[in-house]
């Protein structure tokens, strides 16, 4: 079980994926949420009940966030989601509009989080979802801090990505599935019409998104990171900071939560980004990756070097 | 059944709309009149036309006796502001175009601030699977009944109809039943022959303009783009699919296998033809 060590590492919210009983016999290999059920999902409702019990007062959210569902699946998932709420789930993370509407119709709007897969990236879109009665928007990865500050509106919670697992594409606008292998893996290779220099930069950026070639620094993940942006995100009103990687090992999850919790504590104590960066480098090493903004989810927390052009 | 054509400028339109396609596509498309021209962008706010260009293309549509349809993209706050400004200008025009929205914020903006503009739900409202690697492994044309029945998209379509949306537009996804059976009164519009596979703000073509590595991809998100992708599209060769793929601006498209869309074509009220993949 992962809950106890993650609580000890500093987690104060959990999210997980879960597949309804009988799903596979009806829908085959279609996923009930964005990640592979075998490698990233909770095994069943019994395990989920134990997670709820161990999490104690910390909320546990369930991702039912496939970008769309086949015929008949929405009613099945809406019923399943309602049963999870009855079991103690604090809320459901949803992307598909039909499922979101079905759950809202049955009175669960206030316990719905709009998944980053729904690509809510402006205040007008946030207002639309608020009018549907949802509680929280999970902002997609590819936003600047300046943009995030413009999206936040009153009477709605916002969550932002903090650590791990990037993607070259906008996840909600990727109409492919990881069930067939990550489509982005081959993207850009020998692309026509693009200069070799740009392709080299693209390959390097993809490498950083993939945890710098699946590396760790002193046990801490070397992937996309928004730790230094915490002070500005807290000031803007972000209520939850997302450490992703459901499919990762417990070791990696715990290390991610530890470094995130430390940065959050520093930010709450009034630390500036420079101080947080210093502490992150002390733990993770590889100062160049931080100083040159290679891992930044939100590089606009730092001033850009001026280009010669 | 009627046609629309995606245009890039006010060039003369083909006498038969199917002439916008290759011969193999012309062979499977039914005859029908041209009723609309489409322009704008669905994937990138930096590619939106200005008010003067919209006015020019609306005039072109009037001259040939068809409707003008402005495509708008999914948009970050900067893009959303730009769309709002454009719509405010467009709304004052005598010959205002219909507007396709691909962002719930833009849909809401149209409904609340520009209710007299005809609004149409664009292809990005359909988040169905379009994975070319899987599509080429599915030899069967979707069964006619499958394209019409089932509950997929039912609540979405009811919501859109309730919001006064007049049309539901999409390219071809794998399930093939997003447009429904038409009972909601929404015009069912199918884009051919390209579907999008994936899109991103981290545009490879934009990165070509960057002066340094420090202005590329995530690090360059807030930088403006000169739109040098206009008029450019390039073949993408991948070892994991035989389907023809292209990169156009920030989006990867593929040509849909014809056998996958024959049923959809029969149930579409309008087909919008794209001469080339365009973001």
Fold and architecture overview:
The complex is a heterodimer of chains A (309) and B (279). Chain A has a single domain, classed as Aldolase class I (TIM Barrel, Alpha-Beta Barrel). An eight-stranded parallel beta sheet of chain A has the order 2-1-3-4-5-6-7-10. In chain A, strands 8-9 form a two-stranded antiparallel sheet. By secondary structure, chain A is of the alpha/beta class. Chain A is globular, with a radius of gyration of 19 Å. Chain A is 42% helix and 12% strand. Chain A has helices at 3-9, 23-27, 37-40, 45-55, 73-87, 97-105, 123-132, 145-151, 196-209, 211-214, 230-236, 250-268, 273-284, 287-291, and strands at 14-18, 41-42, 60-64, 91-94, 112-114, 136-138, 157-163, 216-217, 220-221, 240-243. The model of chain A has no long low-confidence stretch (mean pLDDT 94). Chain B has 279 residues and is α/β, with parallel strands linked by helices. Chain B has helices spanning 23-28, 51-64, 77-91, 104-113, 132-135, 144-148, 154-162, 204-207, 262-267; strands spanning 2-6, 34-40, 67-71, 98-101, 119-121, 167-170, 187-192, 194-199, 234-236, 245-248, 251-255, 270-274. Chain B has an eight-stranded parallel β-barrel with strand order 1-2-3-4-5-6-7-12. A four-stranded antiparallel beta sheet of chain B has the order 8-11-10-9, with no helix packed on it. In chain B, helix 3 (77-91) runs parallel beside helix 4. Chain B is globular. Chain B starts with a strand and ends in a 5-residue tail after the last strand. The model of chain B has no long low-confidence stretch (mean pLDDT 95).
